[in-house]
């Protein structure tokens, strides 16, 4: 078993690296250094510390919520700028930024507080002088950094919202008492620049403080040595812990890949390409295969084929769909006569022009091949999950011989395998719909086949929900087996 000495300062490096992605300012709904990467790095750093102190478990739970909020911020961009008109975008952006700012603050404050409490508790137990070092007023270095963190995070959210509030004054007229402030909307760009400058200055100061704090902790060798000794003892007492964590990580990646298989088109372009789902499956396979004693070649080969062919299929499909709906289609929110005429003209051209027809059927063939790879991938992943269920689920460790639990293991594993089978069948059915939709696209106008596009998205969501549910059930049974031992 690898000792924790090889893992640096117990995850502190990952936490500092995560802070690098959090010091940059927001510009409306945009985030230059995505917060989701920072939160994932912090989560990785907290996992090792969570083995020693319970406050870090609560921090992990809260940072997972922050990962979800950061993902919503990213997904909001194509919704705002792809599905709304230019006149509605400022209001939509204000709504998203304001809502996310409130939710971020609600979750951020207790999350950082739990980290500070966990470090303080470990310092009391292991004589951490750098963590407990007090100033003239009796405040520890951890408390001071916590206050600065909360102040900066609040300032960051406020400065993101303030420039967007000017949209509220943009449509004032007549004798409205707010008319005098209507000029502010004309300077929204300057106000954003001003807020970015202020946030960036405070962010750099905060990041420097975080780095200095981490360096001080790393110089406290007796404290770190005591933590490593405790962690090594815990790992030796729980030999399956490393493998279980690798399996949990793989389950999370498989859940992310299920979400990324949802086809969502904006102006004919898929904003959630299946190729990213293929990357997630590859990473999940690397994480899980050694833990289930399964050969690498089948799943790695199928996942790689799906990644490559899926990338080509996405590019060709997006090119066909974008060309089909282009020509002012997005200027109308419904099937206006102009929009319908454009679609009809493009459909006729696709059917009559030899080159366009050839490109269309080549794209359909590539998409068909990609979906076949997807079905094979589902079958291989089902086999991998069956190995996880057989090895890591069942009765709690040490209680397998309890007569009260007789037959419980087979019942639990059978139920989980049935859930995986149902999700796999749904995925295979869903894989057929994109191909049918593409083949019928030129002739779909005015027919029932026109509903295949929205129906495909709905079925993708059903598949993602079913797959995530069964993965959550597997993880819950793993927690029951190992954490209640």
Please characterize this protein's 3D structure.
It is a single chain. The protein is mainly α and 485 residues long. The protein has 2 domains: 1-237, no CATH class; 239-397 and 404-485, no CATH class. 73% of the residues lie in helices and 2% in strands. The protein is built from 15 helices and 4 strands. The strands form 2 sheets. It has a two-stranded antiparallel ribbon with strand order 1-2. A two-stranded antiparallel sheet has the order 3-4. β1 and β2 form a beta hairpin. α1 (12-20) packs antiparallel against α2, α6 packs antiparallel against α7 and α11 (296-325) packs antiparallel against α13 (354-392). It is flat and about 80 Å long. The two termini are 21 Å apart. Residues 1-9 and 327-344 have low confidence and may be disordered.
Segments where pLDDT lies below 50 for 5+ residues? Answer: 1-9, 327-344
Gross morphology is flat
Number of strands: 4
Spell out the helices and strands N to C: HEEHHHHHHHHEEHHHHHH
The spatial strand order of the largest sheet comes to 1-2
Instruction: Work out the strand percent.
Output: under 5%
Radius of gyration: 27 Å
Structural class: mainly alpha
Distance between the termini: 21 Å
- Overall average pLDDT: 78
Number of domains: 2
Largest sheet: 2 strands, antiparallel
User: Which percent bin holds the helix content?
Assistant: over 70%
Number of helices: 15
